[in-house]
Amino acid sequence: MSNVQISGNVQVGSIDASCSLTDAIRDTLAVIERRSRRHRNMVIQFVVCFLLVIAASICFWDLRFLIAWSLIIVLVGIHVARDTAIIHAWLRDIVDQVEKERFDIDVLKEAVSTNPSVPQQTLGAMLELLDGIKKPLQDSDSSESFETIRQGIRRNSIYHSTLILLGATTFASTLAFVGLMFIFKETWCYVGFVSSLVIWQITRFLGRS
Fold first, then answer.
1. pTM of full prediction above 0.85
2. Quick one: residue 185, left, alpha or beta (phi over 0 = left, psi -120 to 50 = alpha)?
């Protein structure tokens, strides 16, 4: 007997039997729904901020307000960094479930990927990270080895979230300084532009490595 509930665009539920695999499937679908809801909210915030900047520029008849558009990039960066933290927290939960009761990761992947109501774009990054810990999970035979996997996931979460925030902030600063250079034409504007551009390129390089 199935026990399926509809939450937003995602069917959340599983068979009535209680085990780590069904818990993992249920938690995965819940995280997908949470991420989809956050993505929708982010789009709304993006549009509101975009329109507010235009309205302020028209009301005060000052194009300098358009520089505030760079703040939208920071908001997107915060959203993506938070989304990264959510995915890694889910990944640690999966490790907990596997440690509690061994199950095949491929079964979990098939169960969620074949669900027609699951947004495949939202699921893609999650399955990619899941593949990354598949072999370490299979080779783990002690609580210490599982804890090592969790610590690695936690470090990756902090590392990538920090790079995303830093990259979004420096990219936004770079665009802002471009606008300031045209307005003020001062030395500090050029120094700020070059500094932001260099830091942004460094974060891009670190993110690809």
1. no
2. left
